[in-house]
Amino acid sequence: MKNWYSTSALIFLALLFLALTMLSGAWLTGLRLDLTENRLYTLSPGTLNLLDEIDEPITLEFFFSEDASSELPMVRNFARRVQELLDEMALRADGGLVIRRVDPRAFSEEEDRAALLGLEGVPVGPGGESLYLGIVGTNLVDGREVLPFISPAREAFLEYELARMVYILSQPVRPRVGLISGLPMDGGMDFQTGRPLEPWAIHDEIHELFDVESIDLEAGTLPSDIDVLVLVHPRGIEPALLGEIEAFALSGGRLLAFLDPFAETDPGPDPSDPMAAVTADRYSSLEPLLEAWGVDFSTDEFVADLGQALQVALQQGQPPVRHAGILGVTQANMNRDDVITGELEVINMASVGRIRLAEQSSLSMEPLLTSSRSAGLLDTERLRMLSDPGQLADEVAPTGDEYVLAARLSGEVAPVFADPSEAGRIDAIVVADADFLADRYWVQRQRFFGTTLLEPFANNADFVVNAIDNLLGNADLIAVRGRGTSTRPFTLVDELRRAAEQSLRATEQRLEAELAETERRLNDLQQARADADLSVLTAEQETEIDRFIAQRLDIRRQLRQVRRDLDRDIEALGTRVKMINIALMPLVVTAFALILAWRRRQAFRRRRNEART
Fold this sequence. Notes:
Blueprint: H1 2-27, H2 45-52, E1 58-64, H3 73-93, E2 97-102, H4 109-116, E3 122-124, E4 129-131, E5 133-138, E6 144-147, H5 158-170, E7 176-181, E8 189-190, E9 195-196, H6 201-209, E10 211-214, E11 228-232, H7 239-250, E12 254-258, H8 274-279, H9 289-293, E13 295-297, E14 301-305, E15 309-312, E16 321-330, E17 346-350, E18 355-357, E19 364-370, E20 375-379, H10 392-395, E21 404-413, E22 424-431, E23 443-448, E24 451-456, H11 460-471, H12 476-481, H13 491-528, H14 539-612
Parallel strand pairs: 1-2, 7-10, 7-11, 11-12, 12-22
Antiparallel strand pairs: 1-5, 3-4, 5-6, 8-9, 13-18, 14-20, 15-16, 16-17, 19-21, 21-22, 23-24
Helix pairs in contact: 2-3, 13-14
């Protein structure tokens, strides 16, 4: 009888286990524990807020080719990730978001519809079957947004792409942005080839998100229905338009200004004449407005930062050098408490100026981007004919100050062009660089089966869109954008390499100085000789040459030692990381398990002893 009870209990437990296993597949679908540092697999608060604010249902159709992807496991895994994220968003939207899965098989009506909606099929396999991996979003008022092809390489940006689509489709009226640009953001013409250039990526991105109206620098008035005014390198702006800008700002309009002490991307007054760009003025400012507002922005100097200098390539075959005028501003020099920069990682800037308030200014300034403390100011004329960027590092005299590169400005100001009694409050964001909008500083364009894919390597565009969103009063999409970049740089390795480079450069400078001194001594000895046969070296010259050769070999030995020390430090760091990952963590887990087993055994012995007594 006891055996029958035991068998029945085992059968019951087995059935219960099977039932719970099958039910968990339905009850716990999509459930996961996100232990990543940046919570990459958890919907951000911004996405949740956007989903809560959906007033009318939005439909997202996910087009994915099941058959064409049968031999592409990585693509199928990515498609599963897209589906899971869509399902989770639909669950959180509580009926406001409808998800449909469409399989556009070859020669089917679904494939014809996918092509008609603007999705892009990628040829795969020997038969050239098209692979579709895109999303079409629609609302009840004929609004449509399309992601033609979602690249697996942009998985880190997936939530933002979907949140942006929901945001656009949920807006009955798109915000209007006025754009005044002195740079060729719309592409322009390549005068060397005679072919049109592609618009800058940031130009296309803000046009996708906002209703943008371009305004000429020569315009006399501003449109009356814009919400935010964006100024990009407003070089030579007319006084009448400056008065309009002041009136717009004082009447509650929001201002986003990208100024520049030396715009590298400014083609000059005559783009067909390369020398015209070299000799022309390349600075932009908002004088006399900034002066009246108590904002000090100098166009005569730029920030040279040894702590955030980026490597640039020179001629082919030459090693890259650190350019103190091209900066990679990292999280350490971003305002982590501001919604614009709070979750960005790196912003690349070039020949950037500095912003500060005058003593009599009534404004308050909140820095967004700053230099490191290893920065100083150099004359902008130094950039005009710069042949060796590495020379800038020798000219920088770090002051120990953090220069403000971008900032919020707010407060009451008196007008310049209007009646002084018509004072008002301004809310503006000023960036002391316009070059960082250009593609070469933040994004790469790649062709993927006939499709142009943008692969950002910096958060420059994120900063711009975040700033416009924030000035419009929408902070939800900002929180999503900060999750875009998941690259984790080896900051400690970079610091070791940077310190070694500075040591190498100091040693190389010493070698060059001693080489020049030795050559001077040899020339002096040669000129002091009175005999005619100058081809024969004297004993004193031979001694000087031998001394120099020995000294040069010693300095080269020191250079090799510095490089070896750098490699040894990096290898030691890698060894420590491997030991922690491979040995320490398993030991910690094993020790925890042994302690837990020992405590259970002790508790069992106590209970057994108590039962006996």
